[in-house]
Write a structure and sequence with these properties.
By secondary structure, this protein is an alpha+beta fold. The protein is 19% helix and 32% strand.
Length: 782
């Protein structure tokens, strides 16, 4: 049967894909699905393997047929497929992956498995991590292997390492710790073997370093020999050529403890897991340390490099708190990005090089993706101590203003010349490959070369949710904001373009044209969390007007008319992404400080939601003004996307009322035997006032009890109080059953907003309520 080639474009490169319907796994799993998998995980896989020599395991006719290993560049590979040259062996050119196109090309060649060397260019023979391969006996429960990995983690941490872990796609685990790439393989192997030997001495009954299966029987092999003879490990996120298409999957230590089956990480499950939890190894290189056996080795820096730095500053009493000049020995590969609110808000990129920090001021922040170019102005070199400096530089001093560490970690340099720098930055919050090229004088051009793992500015994130509390939390660890009565909005600002999404991802951009005006915000790219409100003349939010704005779907003219009729403002209370990096892992107080520099106190549709320390006083104040309630924010809390977290709590100003049940709707699902909701009315001096339907707050016992009470009532025609109410399927009953409900407010059309059932009031009758209402009638006036 003739095959049909498919021509595609991936990352700007044209590729020809063949035999896409060929089964590569039983099931079947087709080659097209394998390619699709690697394309989906490319944003997280490529940063881990880029610049590493790869060994491919290819299965041209699927995993049930012949496989072969390939270390050299595949025949017919395109010229742009990069290689890594290794000296001293027969095979000198290993394929490597630099982008998603090269990954797709290798997948199309049926390279199901990628196995990587431990170093990267420019020093591929110097490992940048140490690895311990835990190979358990055949019948060992996975929980035992997990326990050993946790014990090994503690052992490595005791020696100053920062361990990570991944599954192997089988029953084993790889425990990996990043190290500085400063030593050749034999030096690293000696250090790793020493660590493994001391670990084995502590656990002689269950681990061994003996390779022979006959001699290790019921013990787990701690295989450190991967660091000898240029051996490899399977790459993170690589498929394995085994039934079910398992994946070698990086996991957090918390996830590992909760995992009972390592084979649950497969071609089908991993993409969704990544979308939900992200890359557990993101920014791993930022925690690289020297080998524990070589930490007394130092690097010599130069002299006189900081004269310009010293000339511009006054140190000591009354001067700047910045570190004084002085060349200090460092690890040689650290970086920091400062957010600097000086006379003009900007960023400073600093790279440790030869004992000092080479520095560039970047007015608009780091580029968020390839194709966006940023001006970078080279400034004077700074001392290495600046890697951790943050604080306030006094007004009148050079660079006066607030300075924060925006991102910090380690970088890997491909090129570091006087006129061009190619580096990969690795930190917990910022990771990417960047290019700095000198254009003229002190002016450089900064570009990002790799696609970020997630398109923060192009897709709606999931907003964080709050837990509900009945009282304001106490303590210094909380700040409090007004809970605005409006529409939750996530605003993405990308080079001046604005997108607005609702809580469930609905696009509201066209409905609020006034929010396109971001000229008053000091940011080029950001995702802001806010509440979109419409205010009355007294400055109170009117939720009904927000709903009217959403109902205007007649095009731009309709939206513009609605804007003039019910103008909207966005009260901004958090930031998820800012000028080139996600900030959701930062504590609230730091996100808040940055947010204040973005929104400020300027005019325009965007306003900063004020944060106060006295929660009870704020709750009392919002109650007096008829507002909905307060939000409590834990000052050290992260932003938990799409999750309800106790880092945020909401405390509402609510009302309660005794109401009369006048009808009920049929139930569905587990409520099919009881009811869906009850229609309620509140007695007033003018008679009964219809207050809407109440469906929340009923537990199983209450559902049964209320239904029994309803069955005992006489049915009636629709009462006059419910005239015009849309109520298909409703059974109307005589108004005698009384209950207590809680609600947030009474809307302009007289309905309870967000009512919930509290309890039945068998001690009250409808006549009693009506009599009390009449008693409250004010006396007539002359």
């Amino acid at each position: 049967m003739p095959t049909r080639d498919t021509h595609v474009k991936v990352g700007g490169r044209r590729l020809t894909l063949s035999n896409l319907q060929k089964p590569l796994y039983p099931g079947p799993i087709l080659k097209a699905e394998v390619i699709q998998y690697y394309l989906r995980v490319a944003p997280v896989l490529v940063p881990h393997v880029a610049g590493r020599p790869l060994t491919l395991v290819r299965f041209p006719d699927g995993i049930e047929a012949e496989r072969f290993f390939q270390k050299n560049r595949p025949r017919g590979a395109p010229a742009w497929l990069e290689v890594v040259r290794l000296e001293g062996e027969d095979v000198k050119e290993h394929p490597t992956v630099q982008d998603e196109a090269s990954l797709v090309w290798l997948a199309n060649s049926a390279a199901l498995e990628l196995h990587q060397g431990h170093g990267r260019v420019p020093v591929p023979d110097h490992p940048d991590y140490v690895v311990f391969d835990l190979d358990p006996p055949e019948e060992a429960p996975f929980a035992e292997t997990v326990g050993l990995a946790l014990a090994l983690r503690e052992h490595l941490a005791d020696h100053g390492y920062h361990p990570y872990v991944k599954t192997t796609g089988g029953r084993g685990l790889h425990v990996v710790a990043p190290v500085l790439p400063r030593w050749p393989e034999d030096v690293v192997f000696a250090a790793v073997k020493g660590l493994a030997q001391s670990f084995a001495r502590r656990r002689p009954g269950d681990v061994t370093l003996t390779l022979s299966k006959q001699r290790r029987v019921d013990k787990t092999l701690v295989d450190v020999y991967r660091h000898r003879g240029r051996q490899t490990i399977v790459s993170p996120y690589s498929l394995r050529g085994r039934p079910g298409a398992p994946v070698s999957y990086p996991v957090s230590w918390e996830t590992l403890e909760a995992t009972s089956d390592p084979m649950a990480f497969t071609i089908e499950t991993v993409p969704d897991r990544l979308a939900e939890g992200g890359d557990a190894w993101a920014g791993m290189a930022a925690f690289a340390v020297p080998l524990h056996t070589r930490r007394d080795e130092v690097e010599v820096g130069g002299d006189g490099a900081l004269s310009t730095y010293a000339e511009k500053r006054v140190f000591g009493g009354g001067g700047t708190p910045e570190p004084p000049p002085g060349v200090r020995v460092g690890a040689g590969s650290a970086f920091v990005v400062h957010r600097h609110a000086a006379s003009r808000l900007h960023y400073d990129l600093r790279l440790e090089h030869r004992g000092v920090l080479r520095s560039w001021a970047v007015p608009k922040g780091l580029p968020p993706r390839p194709g966006v170019k940023r001006l970078a102005i080279q400034t004077e070199d700074h001392p290495v101590e600046y890697l951790t400096f943050e604080g306030t530089i006094p007004k009148g001093q050079y660079g006066g203003g607030e300075m924060w560490v925006f991102a910090a970690g380690r970088y890997r340099a491909e090129t570091f010349a006087d006129d061009k720098v190619y580096v990969s930055l690795e930190s917990d919050g910022l990771a990417g490959r960047y290019r700095l090229v000198q254009t003229r004088g002190q002016e450089w051009l900064l570009e990002r070369l790799d696609e970020p793992p997630r398109a923060w500015l192009g897709a709606p994130p999931a907003p964080m949710l709050a837990e509900r509390r009945s009282a304001v939390p106490a303590g210094r660890d909380w700040r409090f904001e007004v809970k605005w009565d409006g529409l939750r909005g996530l605003v993405a600002i990308d080079e001046g373009a604005v997108r607005i999404w609702g809580r469930r991802g609905r696009d509201y951009t066209a409905m609020f044209p006034e929010l396109q005006d971001v000229g008053g915000l000091r940011t080029i790219s950001a995702v802001l969390d806010c509440e979109i409100v419409c205010l009355d003349d007294a400055g109170h939010p009117v939720f009904g007007n927000v709903l009217r704005r959403l109902q205007r779907t007649g095009g731009s003219q309709s939206a513009e008319w609605a804007r003039r009729r019910w103008p909207a403002h966005a009260y901004v209370f958090d930031v998820l992404y800012l000028d080139g990096r996600p900030v959701v892992k930062e504590p609230w107080h730091r996100r808040r400080a940055w947010l204040e520099t973005v929104v400020g106190q300027g005019e325009g549709p965007y306003r900063l939601s004020e944060a106060l320390s006295d929660g009870p006083a704020l709750l009392a104040a919002v109650g007096e003004h008829g507002l909905e309630g307060v939000m409590g924010k834990r000052v050290d809390g992260a932003y938990h996307e799409g999750r309800r977290s106790d880092c945020w709590v909401k405390v509402k100003v609510e009302g309660t009322a005794e109401v009369v049940v006048i009808g009920y709707t049929p139930g569905e699902g587990y409520r099919s035997a009881t009811f869906g909701a009850v229609h309620v009315a509140e007695p007033s001096p003018d008679g009964l006032l219809y207050r809407g339907r109440v469906g929340g707050g009923f537990d199983d016992r209450a559902l049964t009890e209320v239904r029994a009470q309803l069955d005992a009532l006489d049915t009636t025609p629709r009462p006059a109080v419910a005239k015009g109410v849309r109520a298909p399927g409703t059974t109307w009953v005589e108004p005698s059953l009384v209950c207590t409900v809680r609600y947030h407010e009474i809307t302009s059309d007289g309905r309870f907003r967000a009512p919930t059932f509290l309890r039945l009031r068998a001690d009250l009758a409808a006549e009693d309520l009506l009599g009390e209402a009449l008693d409250e009638t004010p006396p007539p006036t002359d």
